[in-house]
Amino acid sequence: MRLEIEAATAVVTGAGRGIGAATARLLAAEGVGVAALARSEGDLSALVDELERAGGRAVAIVADMSDGASIDNAFAQARDALGPIELLVNNAGASPFGPFDAVTDEQWIEAFTLKVLGYTRAIRAVLPDMRAAGKGRIVNVVGSGGRFASPDYALGALNAAMLHLTKSVGDRFAGDGVRVLAVNPGLTSTGRMLDALETWAADAGVSVEQFTAEHVKSIPLGRAATPEEIAQVICVLCSPLGDLTIGSAFQADGGGPRGAF
After folding, report:
1. Which of 35, 40, 134, 231 could pair with 78 as two cysteines, CB 3.0-4.6 Å apart?
2. What's residue 1's pLDDT?
């Protein structure tokens, strides 16, 4: 089954590595023109070189998603390079793990500015193109912490805010042909998750290997997801296959959180 997005243009934020890079690769393989955004030029250059060698259309744009002016400039560059933006994958920004009593005011502000406000500004940047065309897809990569509170992840509250925003914006612009959706990855084999497992293992006083093995036992799938598997879900939602889904949040977690259906 083809996704029928081969003529589209997309912006993928946080595209330097992990889920963002995997999503950029899959979109480019479908024939989508991809503007890959991240803070590190080195990661982006390597990715775009790879995509172009494979015959894809891609451009690397260095951007700080916690800075409004940088976001405006980045999306202007993307539009100049590829044309009107039809797809947006909001993936940049990760809130630090930690319990409520270990999170500072500065961490709350930095995480909110990068993730919630960064996603919001990116959505604002693409809505004019999408509304003018009468079509568009916005996929917010959020996280299961938005639905399932944990004493070890106070900043998961910001994920809940993003799920609320996804539904609110999705309902508001559905009549314009714009679909706004969210994906909640569970345990996924990225550098960020390895850092989290190391932190949790240290808190528990056990090795990373032991902690990871115990954690994986709680996942019905029996393993962590790969970035490529999460990217597959994102790319399907970027396609017309997701037309009936408005403001929905999709759990891509291997069945991890109990009680979710």
Report:
1. 35
2. 56
Active site residue: 153, 173, 211, 250, which one? 153
Residues 11 and 20: their CA atoms lie apart, in Å, by: 10
Is 153 tagged catalytic?
yes
Report, as an integer, the average pLDDT of 108-128: 97
Query: pLDDT, tens digit, for every residue of 90-113?
Result: 999 778 888 899 999 999 999 999
Q: Are the CB atoms for 170 and 245 separated by under 8 Å?
A: no
pLDDT exceeds 70 at position 261: no
Question: pTM for this structure?
Answer: 0.92
Which residues are within 8 A (CB) of 237 and not within 5 positions of it... i.e. 6 or more apart?
A: 137, 139, 179, 181, 183, 245, 250
Q: Where are the domains of the chain?
A: 9-186+226-251, 189-224
Which of the four CATH numbers 3.30.1340.30, 3.40.640.10, 3.40.50.720, 3.20.20.60 does domain 9-186+226-251 have?
3.40.50.720
From the centroid of its chain, how far is CA 248? 15
- How many CB atoms neighbour CB 231 within 10 A? 26
